[in-house]
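Any chance you'd type out a single protein's sequence alongside its tokenized fold?
>
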Amino acid sequence: MKKRVALVWPWFETGIEFLPLSFAYLYANAPHDRYDVIILDCVLMDTRADDEFVSHLLSHCDWDAVCVGGLSSQWPEAKKLFALAKRVCPDCVTVYGGVHATCYAVEVSCDLNIDYVLRGEADVALWALLDGHFGGDKSICQPGLFSPVRVD
């Protein structure tokens, strides 16, 4: 059975049309024989993490993974998306990537709602990470992977 993956581009204030081309690369490189993937562009849809639509989408689609990417200006909204994802899909794996994750991996890994942080290019690494995670490989090692070590 295919795993369900949501690629989420968080809302942020922008005065221009801004297309997240990185998500197109992620989608194009997805192994579609193993993953059903959607892109949720909150900027294009002008919807925020606390909007009912986003909550409904995340809570009613039984996601296996919620992957969020973005710029530093999107970090506050990304944090809300991760909290929402873990609240409505507690068993989903969460992955954060993009410019902010690359530059501030240690800082963002302190958010307990984020399972993995990917630094740098993720078009291949994301799918290798998810394959390893869902395949039970707890020693996942991919270039750019920053996996926080936590003591509970």
